[in-house]
Amino acid sequence: MVYRIRFAKYGIVRYIGHLDVMRYFQKVVRRSDLPVKYSQGFTPHQIMSFALPLGLGITSDGEYMEIEFDDSVTAEEIMTALRAHTTEGFEVLDICELPKPLPNTHVDSAMALVSGAEYMISCKDGYTLPFSSEEELWSCFKDFYAQESIVINKKTKKSNEETDIKPFIYKAYPTVDVAFDKGVLLGNDEITRSFGITDNTAHAEKFENGLTLHMCLSAGSKMNVRPEPVIEALCGFAGAEYNPYAFACHRMELYMGDKDLHGLTYKGEINGQ
Amino acid sequence: MRKLALSDEILNTIDKPARYIGHEVNSVWKDPSSVDIRFCMCFPDVYEVGMSHLGIMILYDMFNKREDTFCERVYSPWPDLDAIMRRDGIPLFAVESQDPVKNFDFLGITLQYEMCYTNVLQILDLSGIHLFAHERGEDEPIVIGGGPCAYNPEPIADFFDIFYIGEGETQYYELLDLYKEHKSKGTSRKEFLKAAAQIPGLYVPSLYEVTYKEDGTIASVCPTEGAPARVKRQVVTDLSDTFYPEKPIVPYIKAIQDRITLEIQRGCIRGCRFCQAGMIYRPIRERSLDFLKKYAIDMIKNTGYEEINLSSLSSSDYTKLKELLDFLIEEMGNRKVNISLPSLRIDAFALDVMGKVQDVKKSSVTFAPEAGTQRMRDVINKGLTEEQILTGALDAFKLGWNKVKLYFMLGQPFETDEDVIGIPVLADRIAREYYENIPKETRNGKVAITISTSYFVPKPFTPFQWAAQIRPDEYLRRKSVLMDTLRQQLNFKSIKYNWHDSDTSILEGLLARGDRRVSKVILEAYRQGALFDAWTDYFDMEKWLKALEITGTDIDFYTQRERSTDEVLPWDFIDTGVSKKFLASEYEKARKGVVTPNCRQQCGGCGCNSWNAGVCVETRGNLEV
Questions:
Q1: Do residue A57 and residue B8 have CB atoms under 8 angstroms apart?
Q2: Across chain B, what does the average pLDDT equal?
Q3: Confidence check on the interface: ipTM exceeds 0.90, yes or no
């Protein structure tokens, strides 16, 4: 049985990179003595995959991994065992059983399904910021978003491309409590999205100044937009110098779907959709 | 979660920030104000290297088992962070509490190889501790060194308050108790060190005065303030009744040794004459089967590692190896844990085991003849014959292996060009075994043989401690002789040759057999910017040459000189249990090419039976060796 497991990554362990997070959980599973399934071949490895890598330095309440376990164990047993063997900074929050695929079909892994990610950007204390209030920040963002296009330099190993990311900023809003108020929710009108989880900033670092911005961005293998270039472009638009260390990012949720996004926390529908 | 010593900005800028954040699985936390002693253990190299070291794990566990002590760790900051710390004045900190090292009672530094000495100075410097021990104030940590390099501590003696000679499990509790007593009474640092010198195995350099003769050799080493004339090496007599970590720390990033280390025994029976480890860890002492079985399971359960490594100098000599491996292959197989088995003599038994735990197509079979001819192998007392090598190799080939690694040294005493030529000739003979005996259809491609030569460095407490190290240009000449001979071999296309760098080896020679005056060279090299000398990317011979020039030190005096057996050597004040007479007689036997049987065949009378432990008290004659 394959399970989709949501976990938080926060505090000091935000400095651990994605590959090391994978190795960490492989060891957690071994310590927990859960009946994990292994692949065939001479060097068997655990059947475990992660939905979307998280950048170094970013915290999260919306990380997902999928692990295949033997049918002899229940979801509750898995949760309890994993929670007993994770250490400070990693918290296993949720578990869903994924349905077994019907004959001649297959269930896409979370890795293949991810199409969006939602982030909270917080302004850190002790830095000179281009915005002194939430109203000013949001007003600036509205003007920024009102542009016809928002072009950034997307650096890859091979090239340095200019890309218009405006259509890939799916949603944006200042604070969580006004998220569903149509008046303050900006975004690509072709995309609808529903939250999968509600406690999505529980493990984020909170700052005194309280200035935040939230964005749902395109994510995954087709088009991955990180939050940092968006903030850099925003600062450029505001005529201010961009200091990457002045902002903290927290990933709130991952989404799947094409035009109709919903959170990865699986709620019992069939065949991975 | 404790507040980090480094800011987000710094952590986001440097390479692998996880090196400095601590909070690893199985790391210990105690409230620092609730303990009497704060101990900081240091491995003077980068985190990933330090986290692979078993010794620190043993001591970390041992110290933290005491309620009155909190032991934390510190490692060398990588050059990127080193520069930032100096620029911003950030003091070096321990990873658990993130507190400055200079606030600790003790700073223990393990000395595993000589090329880390400049990193030792980096640790002291970045901690804000006075580099010279005699300048340290009452509140500065007591700096104590241990490990194999402590067997000649003299080149770095000026930087340490105490050295612990030998195995750490025996006397550290005594030292901590003594410290607690002195701390509560408020006695001075000097008084404490004087009392510490009375604990067996502890060497307090400040209490010994060294004088020199006109020719530069040592005239005398005189203890003062009641310190013992000789410091006796510490030995754990029962390795099955001692500390061992059931819960080793699991780093977040990949350590060099990303696996459980199970030390199955200490010491070695073989008595190879070049080998310092074989001399300073005598006599061979095994851990019991029950001990190893229990720890293997516990350590795997507590960490979740995927591989377990059986560690010892010569694993084939562990008398219960078959039973241990039968147990591990089954238990570890069930848990999908790989078994790593280095230091095995290649014979039918070893090949059978290796076939079960390794992918024969990808792994290699390793031989360490260390010399190219039987005569030379007799000189160094490496009891490995050509027949054994060829038979072992052929057996391996028949079972599917086609990769062979061969380790040799160039520059050992009494070596001639004939011996050097023997190396590629032997490699070629192994290749012939493959091509002549393995039919083309069953071959998995060509045989791949790799020859590695390192540049021999004579080490203290070995029979070769009096020998001259060959000059770097002579090493390179011999290397060329080897290469030229290799090209003439029939199967030279199947043989690759790697040779060890000569600059680092000659420096290693200076530091291994240096005296106290060498400390100024190390300090000057550090001031010139030498750091991470064990890393090829960072090692810069120019800085050391400059240091030698500025300090007016003649490196040849330490490396090229053949010493007379009458000379007072800088490390003579240490009693390792192996007598100088034994070492001298072994040197003479080497000169004549006479072999000494191993400890199980016959006792050689080296003197370490004074501990009545291990092989010295085994009944001999009924084991196949």
A1: yes
A2: 96
A3: yes
